[in-house]
TrEMBL record:
Gene Ontology MF term list: hydrolase activity
Domain of life: Bacteria
InterPro entries on file: Amidohydro-rel, Metal_Hydrolase
Keyword Hydrolase appears in the UniProt entry: yes
SUPFAM superfamilies, alphabetized: Metallo-dependent hydrolases
Organism of provenance: Chitinophaga barathri
Protein name as it appears in the record: Amidohydrolase
Keyword tags: Hydrolase
Amidohydrolase-related domain boundaries: 35-261
Length: 261
């Protein structure tokens, strides 16, 4: 079984994407034998009102029975936009979403913003995950209208410390993973799950050894990235690096436990 914890529908204004709908993603999932995918609507990164993107995603997932069985939608919440608490309640209580995603660098607020901390506490109390994305696209190929700075893993750790009993997903580790001993301890001790899509996960076995087998799960960052790289990092592990039981953790068991499926 395979569960992808990092996939999208929707558009990116500075790059043409392919397969960026539930239909297109499901086709790619069938090709590679993926059973379920956590999905988010990319449009919400750029909509002023992120809830419009969440409504779009929910409507698309509900449009076909096949989508209901295969997709786990996460809503994007902007905690400095008016009505964000209503957006959270709609996503979690009405739509039954198992997680939310936040993009502080795109929505222009700091990691210690009181509204963000309150949002994460609400997610904790509602027993849903909070997904943090290290990078959406590589800034070296960015449009002049896109972000000129990127956040690294160390920039998100203060939020983990602020709400240590929340569940965090750290996705697309494509920025340097050089962090202090204290930051590393925070990640190890927290309820944290990282995906395999990021560029800095090239030497995957080293990061498994560094953070632990229960901290990683298959993720693609599709359709921004190609679909197969995140899976290849699991399947290419040598026998001395991981046995079949370990691979099953990465393929689906860690995701199942973390998402309480």
């Amino acid at each position: 079984m395979l569960i992808d914890i990092n996939a999208y529908t929707g558009h990116w204004p500075f790059k043409q994407l392919h397969g960026n709908s539930c239909e297109g993603l499901l086709s790619r999932m069938k090709e590679y034998g993926t059973d379920m995918s956590v999905i988010t609507n990319l449009n919400g990164v750029f909509y002023k009102n992120t809830q419009s993107a969440n409504d779009e995603l929910y409507g698309e997932v509900r449009s076909k029975r096949a989508f209901n069985d295969r997709f786990l939608p996460f809503g994007i919440i902007n905690p400095i936009y008016a009505g964000w608490k209503d957006d959270f309640n709609t996503c979690v209580k009405n739509y039954g979403m198992k997680g939310i995603r936040v993009f502080p660098n795109y929505h222009d607020y700091t990691i210690d913003d009181p509204n963000l901390v309150e949002l994460v506490k609400m997610a904790r109390d509602a027993d849903v995950a909070v997904a943090l994305t290290m990078r959406v696209v590589d800034s070296r190929q960015r449009s002049w209208m896109d972000l000129s700075t990127e956040w690294g893993l160390k920039d998100y750790v203060p939020l983990l410390r602020s709400v240590p009993d929340a569940r965090f997903m750290l996705l697309n580790l494509s920025t340097p993973l050089a962090i202090s001993e204290g930051d590393e301890k925070t990640i190890k001790n927290g309820n944290v799950l990282m995906d395999t899509s990021g560029r800095y996960i090239t030497h995957f076995a080293n990061y498994v050894k560094r953070f632990g087998k229960n901290k990683f799960a298959f993720g693609t960052h599709f359709p921004v990235f190609d679909y197969y790289t995140g899976l290849l990092r699991i399947e290419s592990l040598r026998k001395e690096e991981a046995d079949e039981a370990d691979r099953e953790l990465f393929r689906h068991l860690n995701a199942k436990q973390f998402l309480k499926l």
